[in-house]
Task: structure prediction
Amino acid sequence: MIEIREVKTRSELKKFVDYPNFLYKDVPQFVPSFFSDDVDDWDPRKNPAFDYCEAKCWLAWRDGQIVGRIGAILSHASNEKWNTKRMRFSQVDFIDDPEVSAALFKTVEDWAHERGCDEVHGPLGFSDMDREGMLVEGFDRRSMFITYYNHPYYNEHLERLGYGKDVDWLEKMIDIPYDEHFVSRLQKLSDRVERMSGLHVAKVKSRLHLLPLVKKVFALANEAYAVLYGTVPLNDKQIKRYTLKFLPILDPKLSCFLLDEQDNLIAFGISAPSMAEAMKKCRGRLLPFGFIHVLKALKSNDTLDLFLIAVRPDCQNSGVNAIIMNHILKGCHQMGITKAETGPTLETNHKIQSQWNFFNVEQHKRRRCYVKKI
Result:
């Protein structure tokens, strides 16, 4: 018999967060995220998204063993912005047993009914900066540390429960070009766009030099991503939290910030050496010795994680992406990086999808947001 128990204590929350490490212990493609951050996500005292969200999470138990988990998030800000009555499901994992998945999703749907929702969709996080999307293609490829991994059977369970596609995100693997002809062409294009636009690359020599740009980066992200699926503007407390999370792993050589003559931020591209292998080795825990694996990954790596690219709406289609790519490409050459992996981007975001056409690219993963009317 399946018993669904709401997570109420910090000890139970740690079991909730740690469950994937047991479910996927023999799956080399699975990559955990930071354990402490995942715990804090569900703590109203630690996560400022609770200013506009309600959330609960549950564990499924059978014979004294955890056999599944699921979270639910009611984002009032998202529902207000998009004029919806939706409940998000999040961080869902379960063994290959229809009874378990049915019990988990019924629990979320029941709470959604109680809170006046008419649809459930996900997997989504508290914000667009969190992990989102269920893997539907690319199960044989290693995850990024910013994305979910899940077993192929998850999708069969959701479809059986009446969930269908809402949107898909694509992920791509890009060969870093070292060909002199390509590099020269990109440099000339970058120089021409920079000259014609009057833009310049911000001089950022260390992570400390990134701090004055943080508010500008998130303000631009809020503006540029406003039309994208499920997005809600981040508040100041969220910006501070995400800055503390991601700033330590960024390398100025691998990120680019474009300013106009008045030093207004016009566009940016943010990337970092892949954390996947390091996160697997430390199981998402920096202490006591996990940070050593992270530091090694930041210094020596053959793979780049492309996190974010944003261009101010009135400057899109102006070629500024060439400047960003040229700058990051130089950093890749300095570090000996040979491939780059994009984070999930909406398949309908044709501007982003088309910018990789000049590279040797493989679309190797697809992930999905499911939705169900209740």
Notes: The CA atoms of residues 106 and 161 lie 9 Å apart. Residues 173-366 form a domain with the Aminopeptidase fold (CATH 3.40.630.30). The chain has a mean pLDDT of 95.
